[in-house]
C-alpha cells in the first residue's frame, strides 16, 4: 500500500501560509485534501478563515484546527491521533496539508513521522517554507550591532526563521509585489545562502503558485533529518517562552478607520509581531477580517454573519514575551 503524502507548510508569522493553503485547496485538481491547522494561542483565526472561504475543498470536515501553539510540542497527545483519525476515515485523504504556527519548528514535527503508528502509512512529501520578503528586507530577523555585542545575546526570531529555512525542501519568497525588483533580488540572495544545497527559491505574490510545483516533491523528509540542522538539535525539547499571545474581545465597531489607526499605534509602540482577527462593523451584514504583519495592515469582508452568531469581534495579538497586555488593550479599545 502506498503511503499518503503529507506536506508541511512552515514560515514565520504572517508570511502567507494560510493564503497558500487556500490556493492549494482551491486548485486541488480533484484530490481529497485534508488540512491540519496549528495556531499559536488558544483563539484560532486561520482555520475559521479557511472553513468559511466557500471553496469546495475547504469543507469543515476536511479541516482540523489544533490551537495549542506548537504541534511539535504535542506530537503524542494531539498530532498523532489526528493523523490516525484521518487515515482511518472511510474515504481517507489523497494528500494531507499541515500548516504549522508561525513560531513552530518544523524538524520535530517531521521527526514524528517515524512513529510506529504512522510511519508505514504516511510520508512527508515536502516541507515548504513561506518567507515574507518584505519582513526580511526590513531586517525583522537580523540583529543590530548593539545586540550582537551583548555577551548573552540570542535572537529567538532569527532562530525560528533559520530553523524553518534549514528544514525546507522548497522556499516560496512571498510578497515580492511589495518590494522594488532590486530589493527582491537582494532578499532572494540573502535567503538562498542559508539553504541546503539544491533547495530552490520561487518568488511569489499572494502565495500564488501552481500546486504541481509544491505538491508531489516526494522528498520523504522524515528519512533525511540529519541533513536538516536545527538550533535545537542538542536539546531534548524546546519551549516557546520567548513569545506570548492573547486575544482582545471587541464589541461592534462604528468607526473602523479609527480602530485601524489605534491598532497601528499599538503595533508600533509595543513592537507587536502579528495581529489578526475578526470585527463586527455596525451597519454591515458581513464579518470583517483584520490581518496585520508589523505595520502592514489589511482588512476585508469575508462572509455574511450567520443568523445564530453573536456579532462581536476579537483580535489575536502575538509578540515577544513581556508585551504589556493591559496597555495594548487600552490603546485598541479606547
Question: Outline of this structure?
Answer:
The radius of gyration is 20 Å and the shape is globular. The chain has two domains: 4-227, P-loop containing nucleotide triphosphate hydrolases (Rossmann fold); 243-333, 2-Layer Sandwich (Hypothetical Protein Yjia, Chain: A,domain 2), CATH 3.30.1220. With 334 residues, the chain is α/β, with parallel strands linked by helices.
Please render the helix and strand layout as text.
Elements: E1 4-10, H1 17-26, E2 33-38, H2 46-51, E3 63-66, H3 75-87, E4 95-99, H4 106-111, E5 122-132, H5 133-137, H6 145-148, H7 156-166, E6 170-174, H8 181-192, E7 200-203, H9 211-214, E8 243-250, H10 256-270, E9 274-279, E10 286-293, E11 296-304, E12 313-320, H11 325-333
Parallel strand pairs: 1-4, 1-5, 2-3, 2-4, 5-6, 6-7
Antiparallel strand pairs: 8-12, 9-10, 9-12, 10-11
Helix pairs in contact: 10-11
Describe this structure in words.
The radius of gyration is 20 Å and the shape is globular. Residues 69-74 and 144-149 have low confidence and may be disordered. The protein folds into 2 domains: 4-227, 3-Layer(aba) Sandwich (Rossmann fold); 243-333, CobW-like, C-terminal domain (Hypothetical Protein Yjia, Chain: A,domain 2), CATH 3.30.1220.10. Strand 10 (286-293) and strand 11 (296-304) form a beta hairpin. It has helices spanning 17-26, 46-51, 75-87, 106-111, 133-137, 145-148, 156-166, 181-192, 211-214, 256-270, 325-333; strands spanning 4-10, 33-38, 63-66, 95-99, 122-132, 170-174, 200-203, 243-250, 274-279, 286-293, 296-304, 313-320. With 334 residues, it is of the alpha/beta class. The protein is 28% helix and 24% strand. The strands form 2 sheets. It has a 7-stranded parallel beta sheet, with helices on both faces.
Amino acid at each position: 500500500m502506498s503511503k499518503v503524502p503529507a506536506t508541511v507548510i512552515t514560515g514565520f508569522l504572517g508570511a502567507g501560509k494560510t493564503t497558500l493553503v487556500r490556493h492549494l485547496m482551491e486548485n486541488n485538481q480533484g484530490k481529497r485534501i485534508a488540512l491540519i491547522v496549528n495556531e499559536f494561542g488558544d483563539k484560532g483565526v486561520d482555520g475559521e478563515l479557511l472553513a468559511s472561504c466557500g471553496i469546495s475543498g475547504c469543507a469543515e470536515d476536511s479541516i482540523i484546527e489544533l490551537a495549542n501553539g506548537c504541534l511539535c510540542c504535542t506530537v503524542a497527545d494531539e498530532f498523532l491521533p489526528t493523523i490516525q483519525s484521518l487515515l482511518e476515515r472511510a474515504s481517507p485523504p489523497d494528500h494531507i496539508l499541515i500548516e504549522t504556527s508561525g513560531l513552530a519548528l518544523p524538524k520535530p514535527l517531521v521527526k514524528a513521522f517515524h512513529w510506529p503508528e504512522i510511519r508505514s502509512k504516511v510520508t512527508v512529501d515536502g516541507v515548504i517554507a513561506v518567507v515574507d520578503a518584505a519582513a526580511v528586507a526590513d531586517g525583522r530577523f537580523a540583529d543590530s550591532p548593539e545586540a550582537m555585542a551583548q555577551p548573552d545575546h540570542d535572537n529567538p526570531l532569527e532562530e525560528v526563521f533559520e530553523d524553518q529555512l534549514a528544514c525546507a525542501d522548497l522556499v516560496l519568497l512571498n510578497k515580492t509585489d511589495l518590494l522594488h525588483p532590486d530589493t527582491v533580488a537582494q532578499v532572494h540572495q540573502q535567503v538562498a545562502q542559508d539553504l541546503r544545497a539544491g533547495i530552490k527559491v520561487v518568488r511569489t505574490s499572494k502565495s500564488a503558485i501552481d500546486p504541481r510545483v509544491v505538491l508531489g516533491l516526494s522528498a520523504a523528509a522524515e528519512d533525511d533529518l540529519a541533513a536538516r540542522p536545527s538550533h535545537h538539535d542538542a536539546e531534548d525539547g524546546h519551549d516557546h517562552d520567548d513569545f506570548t499571545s492573547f486575544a482582545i474581545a471587541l464589541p461592534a465597531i462604528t468607526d473602523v478607520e479609527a480602530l485601524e489607526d489605534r491598532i497601528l499605534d499599538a503595533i508600533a509602540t509595543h513592537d507587536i509581531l502579528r495581529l489578526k482577527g475578526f470585527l463586527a462593523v455596525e451597519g454591515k451584514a458581513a464579518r470583517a477580517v483584520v490581518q496585520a504583519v508589523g505595520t502592514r495592515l489589511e482588512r476585508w469582508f469575508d462572509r455574511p454573519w450567520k443568523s445564530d452568531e453573536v456579532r462581536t469581534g476579537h483580535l489575536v495579538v502575538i509578540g515577544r514575551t513581556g508585551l504589556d497586555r493591559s496597555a495594548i488593550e487600552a490603546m485598541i479599545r479606547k
